[in-house]
């Protein structure tokens, strides 16, 4: 199971997302919706506690000069209930009018719509302006929304986790569940506040009960991993993921997809269902989900046909957000000229470097290989090649382990010739079925290099290498007249 975005609450197979942004879309309409319950009672859209519906009112006829009625009309257009059709453009227009008249709730709502491009062109600086205006009037939901802009460094603000956490804390003091959920995530990851699983659990539990999807996902993740003193319980985790995913939380959608893909948490393994949830998250811009979709199209699984161009499209979306596995995949596609792109080793190297700098071992190997060969737009450098091969090798990349062995065997990049050290690396690679390493071990045993000569052991390794497709090993076996 993997760790969360920013160490937060997203699982992505073997790679834990590290790209900044805790649930960018979890707040998409939270600010507007969280304040709707009372308002919708007032305009006859939600039933009262008695179970009877309030009489519907013709909100389109309400006097537009009244700031409260402007907001109520905007609220009604936002959801499209009763006699009022859903119209995000009209909702945004009315919120803006009310905001300009000083209504704090409307200032927060138009800020959210500007942030997410709902009914109006996306404009993060304007969004920040209105969140600040609303916060000046102590609107409870504006603290979380402005805090998120600080967390993600949007709208002209510098990325500032400490400021974000401070604003989340202020929002929790106002009783805002969304601020509580984001604060829980901050404590879980140690972003802007000291890492504290107990505090994370406290705030997530409180906010999750109020229906906040961020908190539900955090609580699901903590239950999934057995954090904060909770017993590990994948079934309960799935229950929380489902609650949050149903509200559109992109991390929860990706987490739920992962559980379906793995058949975990009491779910039957279901690639089609996993794909469905990954797509929901990917459509909201979730990089892990975008990469996962790319893999499905690359492999032709999950009910979709193999489509390298579509795979590349999703890889590129994730890669542009800094996803190292996707960057590596984009590099491979340029290396081979597949996925609708022309073969371009320089462009491939550019993407390999992006991924390698984030520690992706496959990319590190290819960066090393380009330096080893003097390809990909770089000058040949054994020293640089060995540096990258080592980075990949210590992470278990078999091809890189073999290359490190070669460098020790030949005394390249300033190394002393060391056949024993070379053999140590060959064994590591051979244990992962690397055919070149198996061939090298066969050669060492056959010739008694760094080990006692042993033709039987040599043949065993040559056969293993041949089974993995090594033509060199097969040629040796043929020469020795051994099948």
From TrEMBL:
Pfam families the UniProt entry points to: Sel1
Superkingdom of the organism of origin: Bacteria
Keywords: Membrane, Transmembrane, Transmembrane helix
Residue ranges of the TM segments: 15-37
Keyword Transmembrane in annotation: yes
Protein name per the record: Sel1 repeat protein
Naturally occurring in which organism (per UniProt): Caballeronia glebae
